[in-house]
Amino acid sequence: MRYLSGRLVAMGLMAALGVSAPGVQAQKADDGASAASAEARESLDIRINYDDVSGLLKNIVLVTGPSTRERAGDIKSNIGTRFKAKRNVYTAYEGNRFYAAALEDDDAYEVVQQIRQSLEKVLDKTPITQLSTNEQVAYWLNLHNVAFLEELMRHSQNNMQDLLYGDDSMLERKFITIRGTAISLNDIRYNILARSLSHEPLIIYGLFEGIIAGPNIRKEAFTGETLYAQLAANATEFINSNRGTYLKGGKTVRVSSLYERYNMFFPNFQEDLKAHLLTYLYQGRVRENIEGARRLKPDVDDWTVASVRGNTRDYGGALQTNGSALATAQVSGINDVPVNIASTLVTDMADVAQNHMRFSPEQLKMLIKLNKQRGSRTGTVGIEEIQEPRQRTEGSDAEEDEGGR
């Protein structure tokens, strides 16, 4: 397993929470001791359990597969009107989607909220400095993405640009509480992750933005053990899609505006970004053009919400007619046998609740009822063995709760 290297994310957390600098200065004073301490942390066998996060994502995320770079067909206006929805035909059917309808019910929303609150409590008993760098990064990415989904459900707009980066951005609302201090999604992005690991651009591919033109949301939680492979897979998919790199004649290559938003990872923007892209680009015309490009222009955007139903104004039956990734999208059924997209998108959210025993009997009843309703509509239901509840943190230094569990 490859570890992300550099100063531990704990330093960024201290800055975000307003902890005074002497501890940081002491670490800088002795580089040898710092390196030894970091190496010791990497060897600690403390792992955070994300079964509930993975259960949630497995049930709401639709994996569309790698991009074919095909252009989506034009939208035709319906009979009786000349109005038709706008969309970016180069990115419209790329990227994983989430099933927003599964979270729109008030009780389902509360499930996501409680998972977020449970993640917040991890650091109450487990000092973050006792976790390896990979475990820390996985923790912040999972907390960010669950909290992002929760916040996104409070809004209904299809074009996400103003919601994310407008004057009243949802990314600035401080609704996450860590050790009694309220922080925002932007605090996690910039004050914790980017501040601590600005030399590791792979981080940006783990931060879900809720838009088609952003990095994929995965069907499973990030873990310290698989972190590097997961981030590298997201980077490879994104960079080799029209969302990440796109050719438009001349000597200028268009790339995602995501890189401009995270320009702190690319100090010498043109040179550093080109080197980063070439690390993951496949052989072919796009790679050849980027190798010879005089300039990379970060202006590729698609602010449409990355939900399964996408642009609610488009009634053209896109899932049945497009030739791009969504046409061949699959979800896993029982025993991971591929099931057509018309089959179930949400299997059993009740597993999420039962695995962790964090929800009331009323909520469990509601989740089971929702699952039965979806099963009756689709005709296919994936059933998994219910696992025994486990502690959120596991390892030699994991603490027992008040009941001795």
Strand order of the largest sheet: 6-7-8
Q: What are the secondary-structure elements, in order, as H or E?
A: HHHEHEEHHHHEEHHEEHHHEHEEHHE
Helix segment tally = 16
Radius of gyration: 22 Å
β-strand amount = 5-15%
Anisotropy-based shape: globular
Distance between the termini: 30 Å
Share in helix: 25-40%
Written overview of the protein:
- The protein has 405 residues and is mainly alpha-helical.
- Helices cover 40% and strands 9% of the residues.
- The chain is built from 16 helices and eleven strands.
- It has helices at residues 10-16, 22-29, 31-43, 51-60, 106-120, 122-125, 133-152, 161-165, 185-196, 227-239, 258-261, 269-280, 285-291, 318-321, 349-356, 361-378; strands spanning 46-48, 61-62, 97-98, 176-178, 181-183, 245-247, 252-256, 295-300, 330-332, 338-340, 393-395.
- The chain has a three-stranded mixed β-sheet. Strands 1-11 form a two-stranded antiparallel sheet.
- A hairpin with a 2-residue loop joins strand 4 (176-178) and strand 5 (181-183).
- Helix 1 (10-16) packs across helix 9 (185-196), helix 4 packs antiparallel against helix 15 (349-356) and helix 7 runs antiparallel to helix 9.
- The longest helix has 20 residues, at 133-152.
- It is globular, with a radius of gyration of 22 Å.
Q: What is the strand and helix layout of this fold?
A:
Blueprint: H1 10-16, H2 22-29, H3 31-43, E1 46-48, H4 51-60, E2 61-62, E3 97-98, H5 106-120, H6 122-125, H7 133-152, H8 161-165, E4 176-178, E5 181-183, H9 185-196, H10 227-239, E6 245-247, E7 252-256, H11 258-261, H12 269-280, H13 285-291, E8 295-300, H14 318-321, E9 330-332, E10 338-340, H15 349-356, H16 361-378, E11 393-395
Parallel strand pairs: 7-8
Antiparallel strand pairs: 1-11, 2-3, 4-5, 6-7, 9-10
